[in-house]
Design goal:
- The chain is of the alpha+beta class.
- It has a single domain, classed as Ubiquitin-like (UB roll) (Roll).
- About 15% of the residues lie in helices and about 20% in strands.
- The model has no long low-confidence stretch (mean pLDDT about 95).
């Protein structure tokens, strides 16, 4: 089974199983990962599913698109590898993915 690791701002790790074609946000919410809220339900309208993709995974998972950019541009914690996890469709090929969570979600 493919697994993703979410790392909270204070270093706590939460592993969750990946299922093809779910959003990364849904994976987090379904597995009660603290720090991923997904208030808008995956519409890229709130920014409460912000994650930082580990550098070694950026090419695999891709960079943010125009829809994400609108929300991420307003976030003071934005980093070069920031993504909205609701816009990331997972794949079992992402086994071992690591994402960090910001201290606060907008």
């Amino acid at each position: 089974m493919a697994v993703v690791t979410f790392i909270s701002h204070d270093g706590e790790k939460h592993e969750a199983p990946l299922e093809d074609d779910q959003s990364l946000m849904q994976v987090a919410v379904d597995n009660m990962v603290p720090g991923v809220d997904g208030d808008c339900g995956g519409e890229a309208a709130c920014g409460t599913c912000h994650v930082f993709v580990d550098d070694q995974w950026v090419d695999t998972v891709g960079r943010s698109g125009p829809v994400e950019e609108e929300m991420l541009a307003m976030n003071p914690e934005r980093e070069p590898t920031s993504r909205l996890s609701c816009q990331m469709r997972v794949s079992e090929s992402w086994d071992g993915l690591v994402v960090r969570l910001p201290e606060f979600q907008m």
